[in-house]
Amino acid sequence: MFDVYVPAVVLLPFVSFLVALGAGQYLPKRGALSGIAATGGSLVLSLLIAASVAGGQAYNETLYVWAAGEQFTLTFGALIDPLSALMLVIVSLVALLVHVFSLGYMNDEGEVGLPRYYAGLGLFTASMLGFVVADNLLMAFMFFELVGLCSYLLIGFHFREPGPPSAAKKAFLVTRFGDYFFLVGVVAVFATFGTAAFAGEGSFPALAEAALAGSTTVWTPGGLEVQTWFTVVGLLVLGGVVGKSAQFPLHTWLPDAMEGPTPVSALIHAATMVAAGVYLVARMYGFYALTPTTLAVIAFVGGFTALFAATMGVVKDELKQVLAYSTISQYGYMMLALGAGGYVAAVFHLTTHAFFKALLFLGAGSVIIAMHHNENMWDMGGLRSRLPVTYYTFLAGSLALAGIFPFAGFWSKDEVLYEALVHGLNDPLLLGGYVMGLLAVPVTAFYTFRMVFLTFHGEPRSETARSPESVRWNVKGPLSVLGTLAVVTGFINMVPVQKVLGLEGIDYLHRWLDNEWGGIAGLSSHHYAEVGPYSSAYLVGGEAGTVLVGAAVSLGLALTGLGVAWRLYDVPTPTEHTAALGGIKAVLYNNYYLDELQVWLAYRIEDIAGGADTVDQGIIDGVVNGVSSVSLAGGSRVRRIQTGLVSEYAAMLTLGLLALLVVLGLNGGWFL
Amino acid sequence: MSNDGASGRLLPALAVTGLFAVLAATALSAGFGEATGFPADASVVHNVGYALFNLEEIASIPSEGFLAAFLIVAVALDVAVDGAIYLARREDDGSVVAAIGEALTDGGER
Amino acid sequence: MVPVEWYLLLAAGLFCIGLFGVLTRRDALYFLMSVELMMNAANVNFVAFALYYGDLTGQVFALFVIALAAAEVAVGIGIILVLYRNFGDIDVTVPAEMRW
Lengths: 672, 110, 100
Known about the structure:
With 672 residues, chain A is mainly α. Chain A contains 28 helices and two strands.
């Protein structure tokens, strides 16, 4: 049954890609309906697959061998376990809702070139689903690149304007830079273990574990120690993760990627593609858990990014820019969780974030439709009464993002911080990450509610805000669905309640990822906890006390941030308060000048490349050109033999005959 | 007879002299035995005739049969005469080759 | 009996003289005459070896060579005629169009 369902899940959106590409211009909705049907089908199949996993089945098969060599075999396969089943449902659900939303955002707004848009969405969905079910690192890499390509195509959708193609190029190049290290890492995995499979006895995490225990030997370059080499490999793969999940320092592409249409931002740059990096680390967690240094790096980068991006989101004037920095910051939380040994926390935050961030982006899209594509929050205001559905769903999403009880974000963010805290009490580096993550909480709440109040509260500050365009069911429907999810998703894993009230069994996500209902051995969260380097320590009051203290602190900070935003911006005519930041305002507004730094670095690399170019053109081309010029010069000399006089040709014949006879005669002994 | 400068004839003279030297050296250094002549009473001319018409039975000097070659050479001579006539024909409009040639070539005028 | 080497030398000499004429002569008719001389050298060779081996094949072959030489001269004179019409002169050094 899996043999049919799994390829079908990936191929249905691919078919819609082909339909939109080939026949989109003839269809009434230019390919939207086939996309909706395909993602709907994928969603149904994903739910069936998840139900099967809940029924105890798992799947880890090679479906196609595309290169069989002596040392390695390169294959396509599928791996279905609780993690991938969960991710399949998330991706297909968000993709379906984004397709429905696109009817309202793209079709109803009279955009042109829609077959290309729906083709891009279909290809993206297929690639992302393929990435989720990949059973080996090379296949994951290939689909990783494919989703990057689709991101490029979709960001640059309005390619006739100057902004989008440039943003698309930037996104592609920055992620490609990270993917270069990822590719080296994939090759290193093959060279070290001979296989890149994620699961099973012959998989590389299992082999790595055995190598560290001394029961197998693996290849390491130059006699490097096994642990050190594994750390290097982990860091190499992390390069791709940092690029794709927009962590510092490869985060610069994500705010520019907002040039793409808003449904694209919702699907790709909030819920799915940027999740690919985090998902990859989670998928390989059995390998990462063996290398404490890499985990520390991941945690620190994550925590730093969370705070760093949150500070930049505070001064932005455009709606989608705030959400972009928010995405970077929230993925920082997930990386912090992964680095701190909180596998379940990271996956939990991934799930809730996918829903509430997609919700916020779609809500922003609704506002943008209403405001006739003016994104500047200072031109908005008072939309609360004019766009009620949008307002309430956006509010739900914002409360989730800020981490307010009992919305989804509270539970997941709280668990992330809790894991960082309890493991960090034994490990100071993690504690640094925890502190940064904690400091980011009020900042997050502040910029989130600044955004809400400026957009929806107060008096309308422009004519468009006074009479905004109304939105239809194809916008309100997905918003409502996601709004509901933003409220209830947190209840799948209410760990604080479980620990404080002692109710066993309500941490469903923990149990799900612990292979309680079904799964593959070696890929469960307790296995990761066993091989991981962390141990837990608690504050006063033991486990329950630590949970309460942590939750109270983060909730308090979030409410503080909300309160400050409420004071400053929930007034009829809010004004800019950024002058209060003083000198840092310019730094924050210019994103810490990191874009300029990257351009400067690129120019320096260009200088080095100039030297290589000289070698290529001067020496290599010079040799080739020299050979040809020698033959040309020689030819122009030799051709003067052809004088056109037959007598001279006959003379040359005679000379040739003479020479031949002499040579033959001398060799054949004629004259002796 | 036209008179080229002596330098224009040096190379051909050298080539020809060299060629003669090689041929002479080869001929003289090859050991030929005693020559077999023709029988004294045989008429060479009659026997040439017999050889041309494949009449080996009445020939007294041995030879190969050349009847086929004879007939082919007859055809070749005929062709040669026709070719010469064709080349010598002068067209009415002054072109130097007959019209039949222009169907296949352009006379090199391009 | 004359030793066959002398005939060979005679033939070689005739051939080289004819060859010298081909390489040097400017007038086309003299060119053809020199070619004839070369063919006669070959004939001498044929006849000499016919006597040496006692086989008449050489002599008959020489007959055919004479016949074909005549045919060749016929065609050759036709070509010289066309050459004269194109270039106005039968000097073989005048047509030098197919050069570098």
